[in-house]
Amino acid sequence: MSEADEVEIRKLRWRCRRGMRELDQLLERWLDTHWRQSSAAERETFLRLLDSEDDRLWRWCLGHETPEDAALQRLVERITSTAP
Hints:
This protein is mostly helical. It has helices spanning 3-16, 21-34, 40-50, 54-62, 70-81.
């Protein structure tokens, strides 16, 4: 992995910090385990997910609401299905 990739991962790790430990762990786990092998489209979806408001993102992860965007919904499902 190049140094530019490592810098990008560090920046993304910072963006994954939401101030809610459970949400931080979900996002960081996906970043660590799936980012590198993800397609460009899935990476773009993850970036859009990180732009979401924390309370909305948390409701999506709990299954209390679903994103209107189908790609976001698929990614939320993938993220939450990999949770321990």
